[in-house]
Amino acid sequence: MNFKKYLPIIAISSASEDGQLGNISEDLMFLLYQARRENRKLLFVKKWNPFKKYTKFSANYMYDLECEFLYKRGFLHKLLSILFGFRDYVVLYLLAKLYYKTLNKYFSNDKNFRTFMLIIGFPLGVNRRFNPDALSMNKYIENRKEYNFSSEFEESLNIEIPKSDSISLERDLELMGVSKKDWFVCVQVRTKNFFNDVDNNIKNSSFDNYYETIRYIINEGGKVIRFGDAGLDVENIDGLINYPDSKFKSEKMDYYIMQKCRYFIGTGSGPRYLALLMHKPTLIVNYTDYWQTPVYKKKDQFIFKRVYSKKINKYLTLNEIINQDRPYADMELVVEDNSSEDILLAYIEFINRIKRDNFDYSSIQEEYKTKIVSLPYADSNFENLFGDYLFTRNYYSNATVSNAYLKKYWDCETKS
Question: How many CA atoms lie within 13 A of 248 on its CB side?
Fold first, then answer.
């Protein structure tokens, strides 16, 4: 008899991920897929944080979402919250003070400090997220038929907002200008206003290049809700709702908007995982992890920022980049945002595939997919742009780069 299915999957939020909407959404998504796969339920616990007043953001409402495979918050949640919060915040804080006051002369850098903490036996979290990206490539290849991630991610987890909140959130959405009969697209752009991260042109993008696509959506009868950082000056366009700077901005409304939108347009930042958790068709633009597939479903697509070499005075093609055959560190590389035209073409292709219910790859998309899955490792020599990771998601993702983008930039050799 299989007693395992009667036992809950217990997962505790990690110290760093609990503070970010995207990271905690990623955790919950992978954990719920695991719970469904094993026909079990998930006990997802938020650690008690006595220092929460010093944090900029702490996800709370995530733990109130409803799903067939998710236990509602109760006594056991509170008990585990206190126990692991005490362990990971109080004890860890005291050890850190001990380290910096007396032991730092023996452990001269952060790497040694982390090693010291692991030896002491107080890791930062006990998150049991079953993330296929964390599998070694060999283990993934051996077990991918068993796990069948490609099929799993095509099926919605059916996440629900508690009914006790839905009525007031629906009313507020109408006050924002979106009625029950309206459809809308959620657009998220990571800007310099994100924690005042002014100089990060790798992850940040300009909102200006999205207006052409926004007007297209509105002309098609939809509305657009801007999602993301507050404090951004946006054009006054009838049908464009500047949600982050409105009085309706709240953590609850973040989840409600994502649940109700028809499509999500995002970047490589964390909120895309909330869209994936809610199973929304997703278009990622201005992406910069060139060896990584950012989305999973066949309805999803993505395009990359252009990469320009000042040294050789030309743009690198996408094919050149993922071939990893250049001395990138010496090429004085910069990235450039996607143009208004590229974003619009990607969006039109994205929605047309969905409307036609045809997700077959073109020949150039097949070529890209074949190339990317043959390169499991990123090249750490591409300084400041990429990490050195295993990308098993390139194997199990059904998403693809926009065909229009590949036609222009897969093998294009000239500066344009």
Answer: 22
- Taking the alpha carbons at both ends of the chain, their separation in whole angstroms is 64
- What is the amino acid identity at position 41? K
Which class in CATH covers the domain with range 163-409? alpha beta
CB of 402 closer than 8 Å to CB of 303: yes
Distant-in-sequence, close-in-space partners of 13: CB < 8 Å, separation ≥ 6: 24, 27, 44, 45, 46, 47, 59, 125, 127
pLDDT bucket at 151, cuts 50 / 70 / 90: confident
- Give me the residue spans of the domains in the chain: 3-130, 163-409
Q: Which of 144, 93, 128, 121 is nearest to 14 (CA)?
A: 128
Angle between helices 251-260 and 163-176 (to 10 degrees): 80
CA 127 to chain centre: 18
Beta strands across the sheet bearing 184-189: 240-241, 223-228, 184-189, 263-266, 282-287, 301-304, 400-401
pLDDT in tens, 44-80: 888 777 766 444 556 788 889 999 999 988 888 888 8
Angle of helix 340-356 relative to helix 211-219, nearest 10 degrees, comes to 40
Please write the tens of the pLDDT for every residue from 259-317: 999 999 999 888 899 999 999 999 999 998 887 888 999 999 999 999 998 888 889 89
Distance CA 16, CA 354 (A): 36
**Which tokens in the block code for residue 390?**
């295993």
How many CB atoms lie under 10 A from the CB of residue 247?
8
Amino acid residing at 256: Y
CA dist 208 and 95 (Å) reads 47
Any idea what DSSP says for residue 292? S
Q: What are phi and psi of 280, to 5 degrees?
A: -90, 140
> pTM of the prediction?
0.85
Query: Which SS3 state, helix, strand or coil, does residue 314 take?
Result: strand
Contacts 24+ apart (CB under 8 A), 375-380: 375/291, 375/322, 375/324, 376/137, 377/291, 378/289, 378/290, 378/291, 378/292, 379/291, 379/324, 379/328
